Description:
By secondary structure, the chain is of the alpha/beta class. The chain has 31 helices and 21 strands. The protein binds pyridoxal-5'-phosphate.
Amino acid sequence: MAYTLQSPASSLATKLPSNLSSLSQLALNFWWSWIPEGIAIFRDIDASAWEQCQHNPVQFLSSVSSEKLAQLASQLTYIQRLESVAAKFNSYMQSPHSAWAKQTAPDITPQRPVAYFSVEFGLHQTLQIYAGGLGILAGDHLKSASDLGLPIVAIGLLYRQGYFQQQLNNSGWQEETYPEQDLETLPLELVRESNGKPLKIEIELGDRACKIQAWRVWVGRANLYLLDTQLEENRHSDRQITNRLYQADNNVRIAQEMVLGIGGVRLLQRLGLDPKIYHLNESNAAFTLLEVAHQLGKQLGKSFEQVKTTVQQRCVFTTHTPVMAGHQTFPVDLMSEYFANYWQHLGLIKEQFLQLGALEQEAGKFSMTALALRLSKAANGVSQLNGEVNQQMWAQLYPLEIEPAPIAAITNGVHAPTWTAPLMSQLYAKYLDENWTRRESDRLLWEKVDEIPNAEIWQCHQQLKQDLIAHVRTWVKQTRLRRGEDRELVEQSECLLDPNALTIGIARRFSSYKRGDLIFRDPQRALQILSDSAKPVQIIFAGKAHPADDKSKHIIQHLIEWTRRPELQQRIVFLEDYNMLIAKKLVQGVDLWVNTPQRPQEASGTSGQKVCFNGGINCSILDGWWREAYQQRADGKGVNGWAIGEDCSLDDPEAQAQKDVEALYYLLAEEIVPLFYELDTQKLPYRWIEMMKASIKTVAPMFNTDRMVSEYVNQMYVSTANNAAPV
Length: 727
Ligand SMILES: *Cc1c(COP(=O)(O)O)cnc(C)c1O
């Protein structure tokens, strides 16, 4: 099927002088965002305007004056730099299918790619279609697949209003606003038919039809298609389906997931793609499986039972949630309403259809995870512990002789080029390998971190920390101005935090299992540690709570009370509206990352991994990825960071929290703070630096998405074993 694309940002091309035209080409592919020269080529035009538009190159270029552009066009050094970035980009784009991919996964080709389905994608702060770790994982997966030259196409939803914007009111209570994203300033191309008309597909939501259009986003060599129901011909309520991420209303959720799963498969077919593998990132993408079955049945003229094995062979499923209550279900009445015409397409009767999502203990519900497990050849959790917990949780679906349940574990990683600060990346280029990002999983490469002189790595880290603090001061000032706080308080923002103090980062989605305020559980102890004037400790917090989660909003409010204590005013800050930009600055600038989830609920966690690539150190509960990464010496002391508590958990959450916080206070007071402030004759914290290096060397080669995507290829995509599907 022929189709063409047009860009809403194509006006850029006409605005730019001809020798700058490759800027518009770069602006329309997120590749620039993970290449240091790509970032610099925009930023160096006007650094403060670049900051003001949150590093959005489309918006930025439209705002630069024609005089400035004309001036730039006559600067030889700039033009040469631009040509060199453009050449690098073109050469990257020319080889979408690598020799490695051809050899490792010969059946996966550009016509038969991997199709990756997810309700959220975290690619860049300017495209607000993510809420947290699940989305960042999807974005990093795509970027690494592109870097590795693995043919992949992704399907998501274009949330016109994103997740939400967080503002805290004067009493520290979270309030949500939902501004519309300005699509004109985003690198989106509406997918069109060859006649220029927008390409539209249709699905049935119960007894009504719903039209869907699609936007294409370039992520390096990979395409992400974002589905969108904001169309005149749809009923008013159906236009809102793709408005917001994670709404509480089940009617919206089920419709969104039908748009994603059923609409996504139909779109790929219209685009002439026949995916070899469908990869579902979490069960809210599981309706994909039904539509794969539907299309196969139609093509082959076969019944659901006859195509079931083929569906399983093509589908793999990644599960995240380690608690039963977190797994999504829909009431069967709702399923019956929305799928009223659909089971016939599959050649099933209603009871057979509902059976696909049936779980013994969830009578009257349709379990999306049960559906996903039943129709996939392979499933995995996102860390070893998460895999084991899921094996136990889902054993009920498998015959008794299959024990343990065949749910594998592939531990999450991060896309190193995205999360590593350009300054740090330069250091790796100088001492490790100029092309270090192509050898991320090579342990020998990372051994060379020892060759970086202490003074140089420390100076780099200090610079990143100062950059973080400068950003924090600006952000906090803006917030205080908005809230109409006292002038004095507004001005005080400019001297918040001390660049020489031990700086802790605590940022995440606020959800009660993450226990974001655990560090304040014993106010006396916390105060003692934080208010030591000889060895100061400061904390930067950030994170959103789900709009319907009052418990977590109370946690945030509790943190805000702490930021207002007079004795700690310069030492504790909370940054509003956590996003990928704040996350980047934080993970690149803090000394220590503290994560205190309630075991085993942190499926993996990835923030701490981002910190390691930048020389920060972790102090966390032995849950998720950290349980695999943490290394201990014979005397029980940490080699590459600190473990809070032990590799086991109590049944009583209160007792557990008390035990954990005591362990945390002990580590801070007895080990972490003294280590940070122990200086050598050059005034360098030499033992801290030693641990920074150990952290990089042990974490970087393992917890990156290049390693992770290779494992998905080998263990999930090419494996022929039909090993996970329950009967
Ligand atoms: C990395 C990242 C996360 C993931 O957080 P974890 O607590 O490690 O799961 C969430 N939000 C943003 C913005 C991130 O960059």
